[in-house]
Design a protein that fits this description.
There is one protein chain. The protein has helices at about 5, 125-130, 250-255, and strands at about 15-20, 25-30, 35-40, 45-50, 80, 105-110, 115-120, 135-145, 150-155, 160-165, 165-170, 170-175, 180-185, 190, 200, 205-210, 215, 225-230, 235-240, 245-250, 270-275, 280-285, 290-299. The protein is mainly β. Bound molecules: 6-O-phosphono-beta-D-tagatofuranose (TA6). 6-O-phosphono-beta-D-tagatofuranose binds near residues 71, 84, 193 and 248.
Length: about 300
């Protein structure tokens, strides 16, 4: 059955459609008066968002695979329930299982202002149960309009606390990483993953990326702003329910070693990830719900 037929009840005329991709994935294609977007159901992965008249705001590698069970390189991967490799050598894929599993569509809705809301859910499967995750629910609500709003909800449906890390691992497109600046993290404590996980404090000036950068900023609720003089725009990410912000650019050598990055693409991206990671991992009480939001705006 075609994706259009399978998801017929979630289609909204001229606003939300569903299509199958050559590699066997399904994506929602969204158009509103103020923006367009695409969301792959695998991983509830936003792979495209552009307000009308703007270049795409999200970076996606031209070499990304779009195949079942393989993480898409770019867009906004949903990271859960661990960030990076699983702790203590326990088995499981890097950055958790949520980004490579098929999610269900729960609802689509046209808001009175023309924005589109789509809600996706992920429930336990045999694969998550085998990793010890038996009683949870994830829900991602994405609102597409002149802003891109995301709300990631985690419900603990077990009788024991649920300890997890999470991230909206957002790849932003920039004209030239050498010229971009990021403000919002001045003076914060961070874990420098490129320097033996040492803990450091960022100085008081906006961040300028001039080498491989992979750092988990802790205990920060602040919004971040990316200044892009090449494309003459400013991208703001506001967040709530998130205590960590991760900044990543693989730079020359790491990017070369990645089979799903084309030569030179690292210069056109920066990850700014709203997260709860490391010291900021969440312990969710039985029956509890945790919400983390991120909103992206371009000016
Ligand atoms: O968020 C930064 C990071 O954790 C880096 O350490 C880097 O490896 C990146 O994510 C990408 O991870 P991936 O598993 O998608 O290759």
């Amino acid at each position: 059955m075609s994706a259009a037929a399978r998801f017929d009840r979630f289609q909204l005329p001229n606003a939300v459609g569903f299509e199958s991709t050559a590699g066997g994935l399904t994506r929602a294609v969204i158009a509103t008066p103020s923006a367009e977007s695409q969301i792959h159901l695998q991983g509830a992965h936003v792979t495209h968002w552009a307000p009308r008249g703007q270049r795409p705001v999200l970076f996606v590698s031209g070499k990304s695979l779009y195949e079942p069970g393989i993480a898409i390189r770019g867009g906004i991967p949903v990271i859960f329930p661990w960030f990076g490799p699983r702790r203590f050598g326990q088995p499981g894929p890097a950055h958790g299982f949520a980004r490579t599993m098929p999610w269900e569509v729960e609802a689509t809705r046209l808001r009175p202002n023309g924005d589109v809301e789509i809600t996706l859910t992920l429930d336990p499967t045999d694969a998550t149960r085998a990793l010890g995750y038996t009683a949870f629910q994830l829900r991602l609500r994405v609102t597409v309009g002149s802003e891109l709003q995301m709300e990631l909800e985690v419900r603990n449906e077990s009788s024991a606390p649920l300890l997890f890390e999470e991230a909206l691992h957002t790849y932003l497109a920039v004209g030239d990483i050498h010229q971009a600046r990021v403000s919002g993290l001045e003076g914060t404590l961070y874990i420098d993953k490129t320097d033996g996980f040492q803990r450091k404090t960022l100085n008081a000036t906006p961040l300028q990326i001039g080498r491989e950068t992979d750092q988990v900023h802790l205990n920060t609720k602040s919004a971040c702003v990316v200044y892009d003089p090449v494309w003459n725009r400013r991208i703001t990410i506001e967040k709530s329910g998130s205590e960590s912000t991760v900044i990543w650019n693989p730079w020359i050598d790491k990017a070369k070693a990645m089979s799903d990055m084309a030569p030179g693409e690292w210069q056109r991206m920066i990850c700014i990830e709203s997260a709860n990671a490391a010291d900021n991992a969440v312990s969710l009480a039985p029956g509890g719900t945790h919400k983390m939001t991120a909103t992206i705006r371009v000016e």
